[in-house]
């Protein structure tokens, strides 16, 4: 479906009893989301693609997809179109999405010409389409269950939650791992992580620590041992030792930042500025306790929505480094483009020496600009952008300390006194 002459929505009505067409739909939507985000201007709000799947029982599943560096993240909502109230909500969401898509079109650089050029180039290869059933294609047997098997993890079967021994260890510790379906979450999340539920009914995230996880457990244990209001490190609930020689860390389930800003909370200016203030406060806490994160980005921020004022947490300390201060220098590229400071260099370029604290400050400047895009208040947006500028100075030594930043909001904290759950949630 075109919105402003740009494809933003893909629709599929169930045409196969196995619903394999749903997986095809998600693949197409994921590709479209990645293409549109390649067309947007730097630092613009990510472009969201909607995929709609209507099954044989007239239920509509609405997927909203946004690509990350290596994966595609999504949330989904199901509507029973036979129920008038749900049908109305479904149409209302379509209306809201169309408005958002029109705004996103303004951030795309020459989309008509670039999309047409890409289409012409692909057509020149005369490739079969994803739905092609022409001569020479293997016909799938009705009893073929290969699509129901989870692909192996990059590190081998022992890194995957499908390992029987891993399931036994987790069940003994009191955790029930949630099942995920191929074509949905399986293809879009790392195989080393899985949502689960504890015996007490608590929703958690289980993460198997691999050799590439660095000293993440050490950092989490160290930071969780410091009880300060400014500590926004994700709580470490438990560590489980597996028979396969690895460890699983148990973290509380919280909503991804991008999901909160775009879909879940309908944030007002106070919510956005409060989250930004909590983020700066949390990174400043890390630096004050001699820790540089080295991979600050929206994907490493989660939010607890069970409070009147959303509470932010910083996650993923795979690349973190203990430092003495901003004078400490390290060598080697790391992080996630485009959140990497210029002095860190490039992945394929020569190794550079840099201060991880000062590189973190640059990433914080980009993050403040990211938050600024989501506040509906022009004045607050302007204030946040101005606050970010000094942190983005090309000279790392010219970047101010995070503790010197003053974010003007009357709702910055109130966290300790605000333990009342929300009466209801925006959707």
The biggest beta sheet, please? 5 strands, antiparallel
Strand order of the largest sheet: 7-8-9-11-10
Order of helices and strands: EEEHEEEHHHEHEEHEEEHHEEEEEEHH
Number of domains in the coordinates?
A: 3
Number of strands: 18
CATH architecture of the largest domain: Orthogonal Bundle
Class of secondary structure makeup: alpha+beta
Helical element count? 10
Strand residue percentage: 15-25%
If you had to describe this structure to a student in words, what would you say it looks like?
The chain has 427 residues and is α+β, with helices and mostly antiparallel strands. The protein has 3 domains: 2-110, no CATH class; 157-252, Phosphorylase Kinase, domain 1, CATH 3.30.200.20; 255-404, Transferase(Phosphotransferase), domain 1 (Orthogonal Bundle). Helix content is 31%, strand content 18%. The chain has 10 helices and 18 strands. The protein has a 5-stranded antiparallel β-sheet with strand order 7-8-9-11-10, covered by helices on one side. A 4-stranded mixed β-sheet has the order 3-4-5-6, with helices on both faces. The chain is globular and about 60 Å long. It starts with a strand and ends in a 39-residue tail after the last helix. Mean pLDDT is 80; it is low at 132-159, 181-188 and 409-427. It comes from Russula earlei.
